[in-house]
């Protein structure tokens, strides 16, 4: 797993869950060069990749998925999802993360529309992640269901930062919990109830004790909080006092420890993710 330097991360909206689905089947696959139809044996989500296996056991190359239409459903309704483009994430040159441009039918016009809003770089792409997400922001494992997250959302950001929930640390520790803690931090979800307390475009510095993201001194940035799977373990200062003050935090999350002495909070032994944000 490549180590990454933290630098600044800009906070976008919560990950756009375009579909929480079980794959029913592949409605259309572009024909082979010989022009023959491809029989599909199975479709699965591996990491961030759609993996399509044909009847003869051949795995369809990622580039050949362009133009394919997946039929997705939640057991009640189904929707078409067209893959319009595929590329390797430029932030992850090891090829572990694939990015897809995806469209679905517009109910009003019948035309195809991109399912993702632009991220801070203007990219309108995303990828699937195994599992589903609850209203309070918990990532629930599943062998059949998956969510689609766009690059402007917390789930995608955290995977692209290196907290890949399908991978493990060298000591065998799964990164699932690190990814979960990262999504809490991205959204300033101090209480772990799915409610964020930040604004789009707010810069932060993200780091951890495993070297996936490394701490960097940045002018005007001060320690904010230590994070676990259920939200903040301790908070030295809230990210944006105009959005939520420390007094307000105490009122809505009485169980979250307030520790104005940053060094004490930063040394919290249970912290999976730590962060700095702009000091008012």
TrEMBL record:
Domain ADYC: 63-240
InterPro entries: ADYC
Annotated Pfam families: ADYC (PF20032)
Protein name per Swiss-Prot or TrEMBL: ADYC domain-containing protein
